Amino acid sequence: FILYLGDLPVHSGSVNPNVEDGIGDVLGGLRTLVETAPTPIPLLYLPGNNDSLLGDYCEFSDAARNPEPPYTLDTDHELVWPMVNASSCARVGTQTPGCLLDRTHRLDGYYSAYPTQDHRLLVLMMNTVMFTGTDCFNSAHPWTSRSAEGDAQLAWLESQLESVEGTRQKVLIAMHIPPGENEYCSHDSIEEGEMWQDPAQQNTFLEHVAKHQDEIVGVFTSHTHMDEIRVLHGPSGAVELAISAPGVSPNHSQNPGIKLVHFEADWGLTDFTTYHTELPLDSSSTWDAHYTFRDAYSCTPEDVTMWDCAKRQTQAELYQGLVQTLHVGRPGPTCDVSGLLEVEYTGN
């Protein structure tokens, strides 16, 4: 299955008359790709901060469909989103209708799904744009209930995690904007800030992850354009690993990349391979260059999962892996961005 973790072609607030055409082209192109594959491939989409038709960092949609979700720009195919080929995941030997489990909050930009027929893995697709402190760029449409909507989403997350307690199911959490620090090294100086606006909401998220760490196999993020890892901490210490999907756009001076993650149902996330092009891009560019998590982070055969590998290492050792991968095959940062590594729980 494929996870598309948000950010459609261009910032919605940009002066670009072709923004909506571009959104329709990307969604339609991805849908066609998976629908015409020899075996239909489930494709799950969640919103990034570029994806509201009101503008950058604005509300995805609401009960009155204001704004319309970007699905409407995939003409005549709106109803297949946010998960394409959902019916291909009908559970083998049962009457379970597909794998889009909970679409109650489809217009809020989050939902849950089973992406495989055995239903061993539950994917929780979150809309973390509502946790940021960045104002909606469209002043005519302020996001007045962002905090309340964020609390409602965290309550939904808790209920979804509780639903798998006592089962053989594992859970993967996916989002666009990660919790923790934003540290971007530009021209030998560092830009810093918090990703999520409310420490209490970040703590609540970390508490949920800590409580259900036996069921959760990992957290996927994006937004930063970089190939990074973050160690998530709960009240009693490190509990889980978050890994990011690098950006296809190279506008942060990183190589464009895509990521293939390996999941073993009895264990969890065992490795990833990042495929990338090399800058500068031209007609001869290919996606042949690649590296793996296990090589970059010096994993041993005893490290069955990526989390096994990460949690036995010191922060200094993890940082050596991070600087190798952060810019997606380009030289590492020229300033210290080790603050990315730890997403701390701050308690009360």
Structural key phrases:
alpha/beta; 3-stranded mixed β-sheet; 348 residues; 8-stranded mixed β-sheet; single chain; globular
Q: How would you sum up this structure, described in words?
A:
It is a single chain. The chain is an alpha/beta fold and about 350 residues long. The protein is built from six helices and 16 strands. An eight-stranded mixed sheet has the order 4-5-6-7-10-12-11-16. Strand 13 and strand 14 (about 270-275) form a beta hairpin. The chain is globular, with a radius of gyration of 19 Å. The mean pLDDT is about 90.
Number of strands: 16
Runs in which pLDDT lies below 50 for 5 or more consecutive residues are none
Separation of termini?
39 Å
Helix coverage percent: 10-25%
**What is the topology, as strand order, of the major beta sheet?**
4-5-6-7-10-12-11-16
Quick structural overview:
This protein is an alpha/beta fold.
